[in-house]
Specification:
Helix content: 40-55%
Distance between the termini: 23 Å
CATH topology of one domain: Single alpha-helices involved in coiled-coils or other helix-helix interfaces
Radius of gyration: 15 Å
CATH class of one domain: Mainly Alpha
Order of helices and strands: EEHH
Number of helices: 2
Structural class: alpha+beta
CATH architecture of one domain: Up-down Bundle
Strand order of the largest sheet: 1-2
Largest sheet: 2 strands, antiparallel
Strand content: 5-15%
């Protein structure tokens, strides 16, 4: 999982991120498939399942990729 910080000032915005990805490098079809696959795996999965956090993070990541592209 990655993270970062945003600092908003009166005349600037500073983004400190652990990882970045250029929008042009996002494969939309692959991101849609990963999103769909992760959502399908989450169906019926208990929050106590060790994989729940990983799949939830994958859904958030692929959703963010899709939002950036579209």
């Amino acid at each position: 999982m990655t993270g970062g910080f945003v600092e908003v000032g009166p005349t600037s915005v500073r983004v400190l991120a652990e990882q970045v990805e250029p929008i042009r490098s996002i494969d939309v079809a692959a991101a849609q498939k990963r999103l769909h696959d992760s959502q399908a795996r989450l169906q019926g999965m208990s929050m106590d399942d060790a994989r729940f956090e990983l799949e939830s993070a994958a859904v958030k990541r692929e959703t963010a990729r899709m939002a950036a592209v579209l």
